[in-house]
Design brief:
Elements lengths: L7 H6 L9 E4 L7 H5 L17 E5 L2 E11 L2 E9 L24
């Protein structure tokens, strides 16, 4: 792509930029037996394996986006993105796109 030509990927982004997606910040997870689950009560503690201060996982829908730091911002929790899983957008130029095997273009 030449510098003066618009990026085809960015041109297509305006079609999806208003779609809402669910963002989830996952502190950690653990496994409990049914007996442990039934014994939970108010003030019960559930021990997690992730060390204090370690970054938490951030998901977009069910896809891992990256990791972040939990913060308190104006009385509510927030997450500062510390690292992104794939920090680079794929270079999807039309001439680089490969069609799956067995799929033909309209002109064929």
């Amino acid at each position: 792509m030449k510098p003066d030509q618009p990026d085809p990927l960015l041109d297509r982004m305006d079609r999806i930029e208003h779609i809402q997606v669910t963002v989830r910040a996952e502190l950690d997870q653990t496994i409990l037996t049914f007996a442990e689950l039934l014994n939970l009560d108010v003030d019960s503690l559930i021990q997690l394996s992730r060390p204090t201060g370690e970054n938490i996982d951030i998901y977009i829908e069910d896809i891992l986006l990256g990791w972040g730091e939990v913060l308190l911002l104006d009385g509510t929790m927030a997450v500062r993105l510390a690292d992104l899983r794939n920090a680079r957008l794929p270079d999807l130029q039309e001439e680089d796109q490969v069609e799956p095997e067995g799929v033909r273009s309209r002109g064929e």
